[in-house]
Amino acid sequence: MQVAYAIGVAKPMNITVYTEGTGVISDEAISKLVAEHFDLRPRGIVQMLNLLRPIYEKTAAYGHFGRDEPEFSWERADKAALLADAAGIKRRAAPRTQSTRAAAEAKTVA
Fold this sequence. Notes:
Layout: E1 2-4, E2 14-16, H1 27-37, H2 42-48, H3 56-59, H4 80-87, H5 98-109
Antiparallel strand pairs: 1-2
């Protein structure tokens, strides 16, 4: 994903998504959905990701991406369902993790 800005203009001038042909919908359609559903102005990014918290010391070790800690707000997929619905994509059920399996089994036993 590429987001291009112009000096003095808060809103991005361009949003480009390139999925290497792996997307279910076109790259252009994904770019349009991103523009519609994410506030990519600098202030919008700071607010959306809650970046004014003291989280940066944790990011100094083991990288910024692929982390499960709640401080790494950019790893959330909380808009996935909204984007899939807007794109008209039928979603598959999320794979069950060990903890969700155990919780489901506990409910059926009780």
